[in-house]
Amino acid sequence: MSDLVTIDDALEAILARARSLESELVPLLEAHGRVLAHTAVATIDLPPFPSSAMDGFAVRAADTPGRLSVTGSSAAGRPTSASLAPGEVIAVATGAVVPEGADAVVPIEHVLYHDNSIEVPSAVAVGANVRPRGGDVAAGEDVVSAGARVGAVQIGALAAAGVTDLECARRPRVRLLSTGTELRRPGEALGHGEIYESNAPMLEAVLRGVGAVVEVLPPVEDDPDELRATFAEGLAGNVLVTSGGVSVGAHDLVRSTGSELGVDEVFWGVAMRPGKPLFFGVRDGTLVFGLPGNPVSSLVAAMLFVRPAVLALQGASDPGPGWADGTIATPARRAPLRDDLLRARSAVTPDGVVLTPVPGQESHMITRAALADALVHVPRGDGELAAGTRVRYLRLD
Ligand code: AMP
Ligand code: MG
Fold it and tell me: How far is the CA of 197 from the centre of ligand 2 (A)?
């Protein structure tokens, strides 16, 4: 494994092979977390009418200041049919139609009330407290662009703009295959030499979060025939993610099995720690990731590479990973040939996000990693990063 690729080159090679899947029409709420295939446009002007921003009185600005008579009222959803004549005002509620003839709203707190009239003590500007028709968006204008992910805010915006269904890329079908004779499912009794299989549930959680439909294949022992049979099943999806068995040991069979089954290797080995022996290949459009078995290695590789691939398959314009900037709180030694991904806790301070690596940075220490909420990138090089150095980090969720 002499030719390690860099993290950025590995990601580029992966994204170049992650072609967008076809799209389908989905109801608005089901689009949560998915990627828009076509830009969604407003079907109405929003607001659809000049709308009052306050509880108060609709006025003609030119009539103010002055004493004006109250001739009617307009409540939210109950507009008045009357229009405003000079010298008149109409009581309006927040969200009510500002009647024809009015060009401003005086808040109720700013007027003196007499029986059927009000005193407006000072001049009101034209347009004050009126939300103009189409002031948020006009019918036909873009609300959410193709390639964007649909979150709660986008769902609210699209519902408000009259959109009920969205064209979204199909959810990628991801199959997970854990390899290792030592693996038992959580809940089973452990024999001597055995451990719980923790990568599949973790990877499923990571990938579901970005819209994948995940199927967990039965874990396989380090046996070539068993592995080949289940590996072949895994190739039927859009993405196959294996874990374990991808290093240089006698029982590491993933790479050779992939090659027997016609997977074209794109790279094997990334200049990073943890996660170095990562394998990536393609078979008939199916992306194949061979993740190292150590749980933290699997996590890092999933965050850095598999998650962006799943988003790219959905046509995301920014598949990530979503690096952010922070500073490292304690010195970090740099490895000469490999970038480090440290598990760290983040804190928001007046000077930005400060990242403190958690104790226990070995790649099997998944419970230590669970104390972290960030992966900090320490670029390879000489010496160390001093405390306070700017670094990029990825949020773990
Ligand atoms: P491997 O990559 O197969 O050499 O495995 C490296 C380390 O990760 C070994 O200690 C394995 O027991 C452990 N490991 C492999 N697969 C899993 C898994 N699915 N869940 C938890 N630990 C694993
Ligand atoms: Mg193994």
Answer: 11
Of 177, 183, 192, 367, the one to substitute when testing ligand 1's pocket (max ligand atoms within 8 A of C-beta) is: 183
Q: What is the C-alpha separation between 299 and 368, in angstroms, rounded?
A: 13
Ligand 2 centre from 267 Cα, in Å? 20
Q: What is the pLDDT of residues 32-77, one digit of tens each?
A: 999 999 999 999 999 999 999 999 999 999 999 999 999 999 999 9
Any atom of ligand 1 within 6 Å of the Cβ of 294: yes
Q: Is 277 in the pocket of ligand 1 (CB under 6 A)?
A: no
Instruction: Say how many residues make up the chain.
Output: 397
**Which is nearest to 25 in space by CA: 210, 169, 212?**
169
| Structural contact between residues 394 and 322, judged by C-beta atoms closer than 8 angstroms | yes
pTM, two decimal places? 0.93
Q: In terms of DSSP bridges, do strands 173-178 and 239-243 run parallel, antiparallel, or are they unpaired?
A: parallel
d(CA 366, CA 360): 9
pLDDT tens figures, 283-333: 999 999 999 999 999 999 999 999 999 999 999 999 999 999 999 999 999
Scored b (16 or more CB within 10 A) or e, 42-80 reads: bebbbbeebbbbbbbbbbbbebbeeebebbbbbeeeebb
